[in-house]
Design brief:
The complex is a heterodimer. Chain A is built from 6 helices and 14 strands. Chain A is an alpha+beta fold. Chain A has one domain: Aminohydrolase, N-terminal nucleophile (Ntn) domain (Glutamine Phosphoribosylpyrophosphate, subunit 1, domain 1, 4-Layer Sandwich). In chain A, a hairpin with a 3-residue loop joins strand 4 and strand 5. The termini of chain A are far apart. In chain A, 48% of the residues are buried. Chain B is 40% helix and 24% strand. Chain B contains 6 helices and 10 strands, in the order αββββααββββααββα. The longest helix of chain B has 21 residues. Classes of the chains: A alpha+beta, B alpha+beta. Chains A and B meet through helix 1 and helix 2 of A and strand 3, helix 2 and helix 3 of B.
């Protein structure tokens, strides 16, 4: 690849999408037909100081394709992007978003706003989903340093971007996770309560949805849990997450598989 | 009917070189040097937003002296090249030497074929790691590329500054010493550069993927104050 110099009138600016198109290396977001694994349940919940996220680790095609997929990625220091739908397109979108946000920052010496990042993804999702049988539906969550709060953006199939002020879920296990979140969400959740609720909602999804993986005590593979606050993106250690799911599992074993009339 | 006068190639090159040198001499110089934990780039730059020192990639930094619009365009092309290479292949495949060669080719082509040569000199620094050594590449207005072992100076007064710095820092030192001597070499014996006019960038391993950092004025003052 040679040095990409452009005339001012044809310059793609700080947009990495624009650059890949100008260079002819843009990912092909068009239709393909093959049986591909699908990614499954991811949850984001706002709490008083930021956002917590939880995502299962299973990719499902006609059978379980992978048990240790990471569906939440750090798009940059304060932003996480979670993927559902086609795994291949999702992973590509995550990589593309990470590069795009960093590219913008290096080109302009300023970081893109959280809303700017959310809007940037809209046309990419739209183009993919309206022309392809392999849809992706991401979830963007982050800590907004200007508002000093966690913010969550979800997308519809056509690329529409909507901000959620409580919680959001994506993937096939959403209805079950959503049920737990609706009952358990409060505006004054602290970090511990937020993590507890997210884990419980994910447990419900894994319990009811065949293509959402629950905690795997046999292999020691546990859902991915992430916190985004003023200190940035951090992923909880596997042991910590394992312990949270072990507690839920023990409670459920005591009550023989039912929540027992309460969120527990 | 237009008249074409014969100009010998020697004269043409000489005129172009003089033109470029004059343009570069109007800008301020930059010192880049290895220190015990990385690479530091020190520029005298009264502007806080029109940068002379910038990040290109995870372990690559850029510095430009001369005409801002010309070297900033090269910086942008460098960021684009690096991000597209990393996107197409892998992050570890992005190599400063390849970028320095492209800059050299571009500057060389414009020097001989362009309407006018670019009035810039650029530096490409690479922080070494498991795969590659720490490197400083200096590329001049006519496409000359030099791989400099320990430190490098670009800009108008490069020769004088180079001598001052070489005497003051005979071998790789810590960041505070290197920065202090770089600032002294840029200033010369008769003046001091206010901290607000210094732009300092470093490439240093701090456990993160991206190694470039700008030093804030407070940190610069602290380092200059040490010893």
């Amino acid at each position: 690849m040679g040095l990409p110099l452009f005339r001012p009138t044809q310059d793609p600016g700080p947009s990495f999408l624009g650059l890949t198109e100008a260079l002819g290396v843009a990912p092909e977001w068009g239709p393909t037909t093959s049986d591909v694994p699908h990614a499954t349940t991811v949850i984001a919940v706002r709490y008083v100081q930021g956002v917590v996220m939880a995502g299962d680790r299973q990719a499902t095609g006609a059978y379980i394709a992978s048990r240790d997929v990471k569906k939440i990625g750090a798009a940059d220091r304060f932003t996480a992007l979670a993927i559902s739908g086609s795994a291949a397109r999702g992973v590509e979108l995550l990589k593309f978003a990470q590069l795009s946000f960093e590219h913008y920052e290096k080109m302009t010496s300023t970081a893109l706003s959280l809303e700017g990042k959310a809007n940037y993804l809209s046309p990419i999702i739209q183009r993919n989903n309206l022309s392809s049988p392999l849809p992706v539906l991401p979830l963007l969550a982050g800590y907004d340093p200007t508002q000093r709060a966690g913010r969550i953006f979800e997308y519809d199939g056509a690329g529409g971007c909507y901000e959620r002020y409580d919680f959001a879920t994506i993937g096939s296990g959403s209805p079950f996770a959503e049920g737990a979140l609706r009952l358990g969400f409060r505006a004054d959740l602290d970090l511990e309560a937020g993590l507890e609720l997210a884990a419980l909602a994910l447990y419900e999804a894994g319990d009811n949805d065949p293509s959402t993986g629950g905690p795997d005590f046999v292999r020691g593979i546990f859902p991915m849990m992430v916190v985004l606050d003023a200190a940035g993106f951090r992923e909880l250690a596997g042991d910590d997450v394992g312990e949270r799911f072990r507690r839920i599992n023990e409670r459920r074993a005591e009550s023989r598989g039912v929540a027992g009339g309460a969120l527990r | 009917m237009s008249n074409y006068f014969y100009v010998s190639p020697e004269q043409l090159i000489k005129d172009r070189a003089e033109f470029a040198q004059k343009g570069i001499a109007r800008g301020r110089s930059i010192v880049a040097s290895l220190y015990d934990r990385g690479v530091v780039m020190v520029a005298e730059n009264p502007s806080a937003s029109l940068n002379k020192v910038s990040e290109i990639y995870d372990r690559i930094a850029f510095a430009g002296a001369g005409k801002y619009n010309e070297y900033d365009r090269l910086r942008e092309a460098g960021v684009r090249w690096a991000d597209s290479m990393g996107f197409t292949y892998a992050r570890e495949d992005v190599d400063a030497r390849a970028l320095a060669n492209y800059y050299a080719q571009h500057l060389g082509d414009l020097f001989t074929e362009g309407q006018k040569p670019l009035e810039v000199e650029v530096l490409v620094a690479q922080l070494g790691g498991d795969l590659r050594p720490t490197k400083l590449f200096r590329i001049l207005y006519e496409g000359t590329i030099a791989d400099e072992p320990r430190f490098s100076v670009i800009g108008g007064d490069a020769e004088t500054i180079r001598e001052r710095f070489a005497q003051a820092v005979p071998e790789v030192a810590d960041l505070a010493t290197t920065l202090r001597q770089a600032v002294a070499a840029l200033a010369g014996p008769d003046r001091t550069i206010p901290i607000s006019d210094l732009e300092v960038g470093v490439l240093e391993d701090r456990g993160a993927r991206r190694t470039f950092a700008r030093l804030e004025p407070d940190r610069i003052a602290e380092l200059l104050g040490e010893g």
